[in-house]
Each structure stands twice: as structure tokens, then as C-alpha cells.
Amino acid sequence: MQQPATRLNLKELLTDQQRARLISKTYRPGETIYSEGEDPKGIFFLKSGILALTYNSENGAESLLRVFTNCVFFGHRSYLAADQYHATLTVLKEAEIRFLDQELTEEVFAQNPKVLLHVAQTMAVDLRNAENRLRDMVGKKASQRVIEALLYLKHKNEDFPWTRREIGEFCGVKTETVSRALGELESLNLIRREGRSIAIVDELKLVDYLNEPS
Fold first, then answer.
1. Is residue 72 included in any domain, yes or no?
2. Which residues have CB under 8 Å from 177's CB, separation 6+?
3. Are 136 and 146 in contact (CB under 8 A)?
4. Does 18 share its domain with 82?
5. pLDDT along the chain (214 residues), means of 10
6. Does the reported pTM lie above 0.70?
7. 208 phi and psi angles, rounded to 5 deg
8. Alpha-carbon Rg of the chain, whole angstroms?
9. Residue 53 and residue 146 share a domain
10. How far apart are the C-alpha atoms of 83 and 77, rounded to whole Å?
């Protein structure tokens, strides 16, 4: 089956009347879109910006579950499951967001089945990616997980200054471990650091280094 497009034009999916009913808001970095335990009232569409979905464990440790970038729906899994949000969504880079309340969401799903199909396919792909990520973490060295997280996050948004903490949260390693791994990669001239900014010098060589036998 063909995978759903990763980028959508919401304008093309809605009628003029439906677009007029969208709730539009711009969020600044650090603001929260929704919090763990809240009930969904509709679904969201990210027109631009970067969002981080995080989860706080019982011991207080925060984990970065995934990153959202331009032109995607989000919050749809909890909405369709009639379930509370399982994690908290915050803004990393200023975000322009459209909100479809319950009435509008149900109308769009009923009148345009392609939208509902896209959402369902997206959830299926997300589940597969989550399973693959969990599988790949088993038995891998922390340095390998750091490299994979760096490659993934930089592809999500190359210019965003991902912090060591964010990289560590995404791949499940401590900030100190990320620092050591980045230092090693910099000594090998595979990355370059300037302040908070991390640039990949040679992606192919970085991937080769990742795949070297332990």
C-alpha cells in the first residue's frame, strides 16, 4: 500500500466554509499545545514550526518521543481513540497551528474520506516506526543511538539548534553520554560544533562510522 504523503496542504482538503471555521493560533517556543492527561477536543494541523512530544516518567525523567514539523496533523490518535493525551506537546520553534474542533473534524472526515484514510495510514506508519525504533535500540551502544538520533533530528530540521539534552531524550541516553559521543565525532571531523549548533560535516562518513562493527 502506498504510504501517506508526509506533507499536506490543508487548504486543498477543506471547503471555503470549513476553512473559515478553523481556529488559528501562533505559539512561541516553550509554550504548551496540550498536556498529558487532557481530553482531546479535536485535531490539530501544524502549518509551520517544530513541536516536541515529551513524556515524564514516574521518577521525573523526561523522554522525547517524537518531533513534528511542517504540514502534518497531530493529536489525532488520542482523538480517534477517545483517550486522554498520553504525553505533552510543546513548541521548539515558533509554530503556526490550525485547530479543527470536534464538529469540524467529524464533518471533514465524513465529507472527505481521503483525509480520514490519510490519518489512519499515518498512524500505521508511526506505529511501524515506533516498533522499529524500539527494536533498533536493543543491543546498540549509546554512541550509535546518539548518531542515529542526530541524523534523524537534523533531517527533521537541519537548522534547528538541537541541544545535547534533546538528543539524549530522543534516544534514551544521559546528557553526559551525548557530550562524550559528540566530542568523539568532532575529533573524527564527522561533525562540527559552534555553541549550541551542531553541523554534520560528512553524512556518508557518519553513516559508515555508525555501521562499523563494534
1. yes
2. 142, 143, 146, 168
3. no
4. yes
5. 54 88 95 95 93 80 78 90 93 93 94 86 81 66 85 83 87 89 93 86 84 66
6. yes
7. -60, -40
8. 19
9. no
10. 8
